[in-house]
């Protein structure tokens, strides 16, 4: 049996749900028995164009038959065109491609350190926020100010300081001229969809400016259209120096990216690199995703359908006491429950609905960006049916 084979040979780093997924079509995914699931999780905000998206398939098939990988010793068209497209629509100057969110944050931290030491040998301090999540490699893990992720792996990377999210007083106390960078999410995803205050973020930006520290916004989850704008920060009236992104960018292929303004465009040959980064398949996918968002009205669709989803969930909250709070933006919505999330998620799977947990009692809706009203209605009906079992 597949599950036995897994427990024998795959390192036990994941607690998996009891389902073997096999294929997908649009917003639906099928298991090995052919059972159909409505996917409101997108493989954790990754499958931005759903499954078997015709335009994506066509581009990838074309590229597959031409060339998959070259390394970064040579020029390739998809990588360069994708960087230009990202720059055009984001307003950032330059892009570095890697393969995941954690890698994007590693690069951003290195950029912040280099920015710092180029001015003063002691300007090496990073600041991040409690409840944040930035990834599992050492730099990103150190930036992830959550004991549960760090505990077995100490010591962490030196030079990181933690302050409370949404607490500007604490940041004022901790930031100094030795701070080289501040990293945070505008909506904390993994810890349960916590949205930053607009005024707070403006103050964070001002402090970064006053102390000449780079403001790094981690858009690994919020980026690439997820919240209804290409990047979420633009809805908060701030101008970061660096943003990192990944998840939805490759529509299912592994890719990460760091976008920098002029001021942070400081890496030179030899400073950083990765064998697979910006490979032809991943950047071909990213090109399709950005094209759909910015040139084919997908961003506008996310805004409309996101509002519809939120309205429906607000109504559900009025009907069901078990729904304590509904928060988030666009198609990144958290539903806080008074009952344990994991039970609810398991029951949803039984009913044919995939949703994602966040913390003990929050479930996340991170559906494909192409979702339609009928899918929202179906998802809310199924979720309500599951919640009713607890009333
Ligand atoms: C998922 C996530 C990461 C880590 O990305 P990986 O691709 O899993 O390394 C980093 N930051 C945020 C905000 C995330 O949601």
Overview of the structural elements:
With 391 residues, the chain is of the alpha/beta class. The chain has two domains: 2-52 and 297-390, Aspartate Aminotransferase, domain 1 (Alpha-Beta Complex), CATH 3.90.1150; 56-295, Type I PLP-dependent aspartate aminotransferase-like (Major domain) (Aspartate Aminotransferase, domain 2, 3-Layer(aba) Sandwich). The chain is built from 13 helices and 17 strands. A seven-stranded mixed sheet has the order 4-12-11-10-7-5-6, with helices on both faces. A four-stranded mixed sheet has the order 1-2-3-15. Strands 13-14-17-16 form a four-stranded antiparallel sheet, with helices on one face. A hairpin with a 2-residue loop joins strand 13 (323-329) and strand 14. Helix 4 packs parallel to helix 10. The two termini are 37 Å apart. The relative contact order is 0.16. The model has no long low-confidence stretch (mean pLDDT 97). The protein binds pyridoxal-5'-phosphate.
Q: What are its keywords?
A:
391 residues; alpha/beta; Aspartate Aminotransferase, domain 2; 2 domains; globular; binds pyridoxal-5'-phosphate
Hetero groups bound?
pyridoxal-5'-phosphate
Helix share bin: 25-40%
How many beta strands in the DSSP annotation? 17
Q: Could you give the order of the helices and strands?
A: HEEEHHHEHEHHEHEEEHEEEHHEEHEEEH
What's the CATH H-level homologous superfamily of the largest domain? Type I PLP-dependent aspartate aminotransferase-like (Major domain)
GO molecular function: identical protein binding; N2-acetyl-L-ornithine:2-oxoglutarate 5-aminotransferase activity; pyridoxal phosphate binding
InterPro entries: AcOrn/SuccOrn_fam (IPR004636), Aminotrans_3 (IPR005814), Aminotrans_3_PPA_site (IPR049704), Class-III_PLP-dep_AT (IPR050103), PyrdxlP-dep_Trfase (IPR015424), PyrdxlP-dep_Trfase_major (IPR015421), PyrdxlP-dep_Trfase_small (IPR015422)
EC number: 2.6.1.11
Catalytic activity: N(2)-acetyl-L-ornithine + 2-oxoglutarate = N-acetyl-L-glutamate 5-semialdehyde + L-glutamate
